[in-house]
Amino acid sequence: MLAAAAAALWPAPTTAAFSPTTPRSPPPTLLSFPHRLHQRFHLSATAEGAGTTAAQEGASASASAPSPAAPVDEARLAQFAADWQAARAERDQGKILKLQVLRANSGGLIVRFNSLQGFVPNPLLSPAHWCKDPKRPIQDVTKDLVGSSISVKVVEVNEEERKLVFSEKDASWSTHSSLVKIGDIYDGIVGSVFHYGAFVHLRFPDGSYHLTGLVHISEVSWDLVQDVRDFLNEGDTVKVIVVNIDMEKLRIALSIRQLEEDPLLETLDKVIPLEADQSPTAGIISSPSEADLLPGLEGICNELLQEDGITDVQFGRRALEKRVVSQDLELWLSSVPAKDNQFKLLARAGRQVQELYLTTSLDQEGIKKAVQRVLGRVP
């Protein structure tokens, strides 16, 4: 849980504390939290990196300006109690609220909820603010929001600890998530980047960035990715496709890789384009020298000929890739449809690629199973 929090201006003591026979003491204000609470808020904010919270602001001010004594306003105390109850109800109902921004600090925004003040931590703000100018520090962006109203949802209510936390992200999810479908393609801006993935803010047709999804390390590139930070940086513009939506966990899974052609299912026509007067089978070498073959490929070809339904194996063109797809020898079925009972395979190792042509009575699924059996037998 993000530790940034805001507190009510006036804590609500129990009714028993104000009986006619009990002396009334001045009510504590936001600026006079017990030292124990100051310390807890300060430590938790530091641990989460959330910056100064509303409670910390109060702690700082109270050190130099003690709260003046004032008579207790029982009607106001009753209003505070009612507003805490209202906050719990809004949280349980998941309603979207329009709240005024009172001020900003390094950790987020202070907003007004009836007679209470709540906190919107920076990580729970909509990405729309940051994406207007990704180079601006978020603390400068939030200063511009003071005096405006933002749409939020209540995410935490703790009257005892005077914690009232709101999320603009949750409100944005409720409004815009129904517009997102698996297979949709978005322009995006890269936000936080970690070794395991990158968070990308999605640009909607209205030009704003309302939602954020995760591009997992496995969906960044067809190349071998050991650290996403070697491929993506904060502020990069990317194009992504939605691959999964978890409505319960409020998560969107994205992919950059799936918008690129799978290099393992391409033909060599992009690497070695055929001349206009060449036929699709031009350049086929029926019996290349053993030195020309990828290590281990000759044994695989011999095993393929032992499979029922495969009557011939011929070698096609060879090429070098621009990038290393696999260090070990791998065999892939090309995306090109079979023609005249002939299927095309691609053998790959490092940057080398070798075409294989199989003459067979098997269908595509039969070829896949035959290749799997062969690869299981060949060390």
Automatic annotation (TrEMBL):
Stretch forming the signal peptide: 1-17
Domain of life: Eukaryota
InterPro entries: NA-bd_OB-fold (IPR012340), Ribosomal_protein_S1 (IPR052757), S1_domain (IPR003029)
Stretch list, region Disordered: 48-70
UniProt-listed PROSITE patterns: S1 (PS50126)
Pfam families found in the cross-reference section: S1
Domain annotation S1 motif: ranges: 94-169, 183-257
GO molecular function ontology, one term from the record: nucleic acid binding
UniProt keyword terms in alphabetical order: Signal
SMART domains: S1
Entry-linked PANTHER family: OS03G0844900 PROTEIN
Protein name: S1 motif domain-containing protein
